Structures are given as C-alpha cells and as structure tokens.
C-alpha cells in the first residue's frame, strides 16, 4: 500500500471522515501524476455538457498508489454521445482508436496516449444490470445518477468515484469504500444477496479480490456466498475460467482456494479440490491430501524464479497433482492407505476439468502431463540412476523438464528434516546427471541415430508402418545406450529387420 496512504490512516483511523479526505487527496494526486489523459478527456466531456467520473478499480488503485494504464469511467452521456465526444477534433491527438463492441451494454472503448504512455479507456453510461434466475446474460438499463450507478457495483472498494467534470475532482464515496479499504475488508454496497443476484460472478470476484489484495471477506458476504453458491451455475465457463485464473495467479492463491472450498463455490466448478479433504480414521492414516496440495502450491510458487516468474502451468499442476487420489484410495488391511496409479487417473481428470473450464489446449496438455509425471522421480528409487533412466526422464518431460524439477521439489512436504534433506540431495544429484549428459548427448532433442529417410534407404522399403516400428526400435537403443553412431545403428537396424522378416 502506498506509504502516504498508510501514514494518513494512522492519523485518521479514530475519526472516519479524515480517512475519506486522505483517500480523496491521494487519489487526485495519483491521477494527476500517472493519468493526466483522464483530465484531458474530462475537459472535453465538460464542454459538451456531460459528466465524467473515474470509477471503480482505478479509483481504488489510485488510493493504493498502484494505478495502471486501464482507466474506467462512468458518464451520463449515452453511448452514441460518448463515441462522438471521443472521436471529436479536441481529442484527435490523445485518442488513437475508438470501438463500440460493448455499446449494447452501454460501454464505448478507446485506446489513448498521453504523457505516461498508452491507456485502455472504457466509458460506460450510468447503468444497472441484473441476471434473471436462469439467464447467463445480464439485462442492462441506464441509470440517472452516478450514485445509483455506484450502488449497483460489486464491492464498496469499487464503488468510489472521482467526478472529473467538477472543480478539483470531487470524491464520491456513498458507501464508505475508502474506510473498507483502510480496514482491508470486502463488503458490498447493498446487501450481498442483492449484489450476487445482480451478477453471480461477483461471488468469485469477492474471493479474487481477497486473494489479490490480502483483504478479509466480511462475515455477511461469506454467509451469502455459502447460501447462494448454486447461482454460479448460470455463469458461463469462460467467465468462471477468467476469475479462477486470476485467483490462482494472485499473490495469495492459497487464501483464494481455501475461500473457494469453505464457501462451497469450488463444488460448483472444480469439485476435485474439495474432494481432496479425505476422511482419516484411527487405523488408516495418510497425509492430509488437501492441505498437502495447498502446501505444494506455495512451495512451487517459491521456486517460480526458475521458470522466469509467475507461471500458470506450474501453479495448476501443483494444485491438481493429487486429484486422482480420492478415486484410487484403497484401505490396506491392518492399517494404511494406498493410492496406486493416482497419477494416471489424475492426469485424465485434469484434462477433463480443464476442458470444462475452457483452458487452452496447450495448457491442458502441459498441466496434465506434469500431473502424470509427478511421481516419476520416486519411481526410480533412491539408488544411483543409470544413464538410460536419466535419458528417459528427460525424454518424457520434454519441454516441461524445468517445470517437472520445480513440481518434484515442491511435492516434498515431509516434516522429517532428515528425509527432506535426503530427497533434496537425491534430486540435486539427478539434476547434475541431467546437466552432465546434456553436455555430452544433447538430451533436449533425443533422436535415433538414423532418420526416417535413412531407415527406408537401408531397408529398401517404402513409407509405411514398418518405418515407425524401426524408428521406435532405434530410439529405444538410443535411450538405453546413448549415441551409437550411424554404422552401429545401421548394423543394429539390419539385425532387427532380419528378425522381423523371419518372425
């Protein structure tokens, strides 16, 4: 949080009005410094006799000192009037492009440039929108005042506005959003039941903001999430996908996932996560799979620097790597539990769930492959790895090798320090072996010593299934023995071919 805001709070917490004054002044200063383009646009709206206010997230972020280049406004001008103003000569130098794909929802968008670079601008007519009981599309009607518009917004921290067409940018905060910002709480302008009825996606947004900002969800809001979770079923998978990704990619995804599970919302769109909360009795003990998965997620995030920064693939793989355990759980006579082949079942479940949530195919493939491979390191045991085993490990991981390194290390959550250190040393050894062989053999692109054309020439055969079989035979030799050289590969191929013909 911006230093000035924190200092203002310390002085003003006992008296609420000064908090609003401090928030308003910080928002104005941030706007002037980082988005003077907003003031230039407002001046043209004012000349046209229309009102324009910065609204919602940008106001919140201006107070927090984190205002970005996406600027949201609300106005009493209707969409056709807004389009005309943005396309006027007065703004020809500032506005590069205007489009009206959101006009039926009251929104005109533009791309603008100012002193601080390019900005994405959205200007929406005062409005109210709501969903019918079973509709996935909101009905939109225009409002008559900014106060009405703010009352229909999702949360109080997003129900603040800076009226830019009045003197000195009037700060409008009818629902004390700036105080909730100070208290770090997620609360709705009106009753949460009414807010979530207007747009059920707001239930996910409440959790998303909690995870992004490290805010607490007000008790009445959490109660409404629990009571109204089934309303999320009318929201499209695409919109749910977007909010879920933002939760997973937030600074505190564990907080978000826990809230999804505790509210029951996870049951609606990703039930595999709450199902990880397996019952444990006094005879059949096993690790708490749910808490383990959350810890693996956090430990993978701590290693993300190896992947270049925040990485959706590793976060999803860490969260989902054990989702096959509930379906494969077997009680062992005399005590204990087994989860045989849970990585195989989990990979299939991962593909199915990610498809349902409309993830991109390449991401589905990568995450499910990591889930499938996450036990591969343990499958080789604690002994010395052969060169063949190292080659197969690299071959199976392909471009996900670094991700697999991170996931495997993160998957160690034992409290036994000696065991944890032994596993770490073992994996250090594996990575060193991979690096050594990579220098010698170009492991990243393991191929047979002969290509398809050479195989056809040597065997004097035309393209067909036999070429694929021959290629696989040579690849196995390559993995088992390393580079053979063309002469030995040719000899091995001819011996194999003779056996095939005599079979």
Automatic annotation (TrEMBL):
Keywords: ATP-binding, Coiled coil, Magnesium, Metal-binding, Nucleotide-binding, Nucleotidyltransferase, RNA repair, RNA-binding, Transferase, tRNA processing. Its cofactor is Mg(2+). Pfam families: HD, PolyA_pol, PolyA_pol_RNAbd. One of its GO terms (biological process) is tRNA processing. SMART domains: HDc (SM00471). Residues 289-407 form the HD domain. Residues 420-447 form a coiled coil. SUPFAM superfamilies: Nucleotidyltransferase (SSF81301), Poly A polymerase C-terminal region-like (SSF81891). GO terms for molecular function: ATP binding; metal ion binding; nucleotidyltransferase activity; RNA binding. The keyword Aminoacyl-tRNA synthetase does not apply. NCBIfam families: HDIG, tRNA_CCA_actino. This is Unannotated protein. It comes from freshwater metagenome. The lineage of its organism: unclassified sequences, metagenomes, ecological metagenomes.
């Amino acid at each position: 949080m911006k230093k000035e805001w924190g200092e203002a709070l310390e002085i003003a917490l006992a008296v609420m009005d000064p908090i609003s004054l401090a928030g308003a002044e910080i928002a104005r200063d941030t706007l002037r410094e980082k988005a003077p383009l907003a003031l230039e646009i407002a001046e043209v709206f004012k000349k046209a006799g229309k009102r324009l206010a910065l609204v919602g997230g940008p106001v919140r972020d201006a107070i927090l000192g984190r205002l970005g280049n996406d600027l949201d406004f609300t106005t009493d001008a209707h969409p056709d009037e807004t389009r005309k103003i943005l396309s006027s000569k007065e703004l020809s130098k500032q506005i590069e492009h205007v489009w009206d794909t959101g006009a039926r929802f009251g929104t005109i968008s533009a791309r603008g440039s100012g002193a601080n670079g390019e900005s994405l601008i959205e200007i929406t007519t005062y409005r109210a929108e709501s969903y019918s009981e079973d509709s996935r599309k909101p009905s939109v009607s225009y409002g008559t005042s900014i106060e009405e518009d703010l009352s229909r917004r999702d949360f109080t921290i997003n129900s603040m506005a800076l009226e830019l067409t009045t003197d000195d940018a009037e700060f409008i905060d009818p629902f004390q959003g700036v105080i909730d910002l100070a208290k770090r709480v997620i609360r709705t302008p009106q009753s949460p039941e009414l807010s979530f009825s207007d747009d059920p996606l707001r239930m996910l947004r409440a959790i998303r903001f909690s995870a992004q900002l490290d805010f607490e969800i007000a008790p009445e809001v959490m109660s409404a999430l629990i009571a109204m979770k089934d309303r999320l079923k009318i929201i499209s998978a695409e919109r749910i996908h977007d909010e879920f990704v933002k939760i997973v990619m937030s600074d505190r995804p564990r907080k978000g996932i826990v809230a999804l599970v505790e509210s029951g919302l996870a049951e609606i769109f990703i039930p595999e996560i709450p199902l990880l909360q397996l019952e444990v009795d006094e005879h059949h003990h096993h690790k708490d799979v749910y808490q383990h998965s959350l810890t693996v997620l956090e430990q993978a995030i701590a290693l993300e620097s190896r992947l270049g920064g925040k990485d959706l693939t590793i976060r999803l793989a860490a969260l989902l790597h054990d989702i096959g355990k509930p379906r494969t759980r077997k009680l062992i006579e005399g005590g204990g539990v087994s989860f045989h082949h849970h990585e195989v079942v989990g990979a299939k479940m991962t593909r199915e769930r990610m498809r349902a949530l409309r993830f991109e195919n390449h991401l589905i493939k990568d995450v499910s492959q990591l889930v499938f491979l996450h036990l591969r390191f343990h499958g080789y045991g604690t002994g010395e790895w052969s060169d063949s085993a190292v080659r197969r490990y690299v071959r199976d991981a392909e471009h996900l090798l670094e991700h697999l390194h991170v996931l495997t290390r993160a998957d160690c959550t034992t409290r036994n320090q000696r065991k944890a250190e032994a596993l770490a040393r073992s994996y250090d050894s594996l990575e060193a072996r991979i690096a050594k062989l990579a220098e010698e053999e170009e492991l990243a692109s393991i191929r047979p010593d002969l290509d398809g054309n050479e195989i056809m020439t040597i065997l004097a055969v035309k393209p067909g299934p036999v070429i694929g079989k021959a290629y696989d035979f040579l690849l196995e030799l390559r993995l088992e023995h390393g580079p053979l050289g063309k002469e030995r590969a040719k000899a091995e191929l001819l011996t194999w071919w003779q056996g095939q013909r005599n079979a």
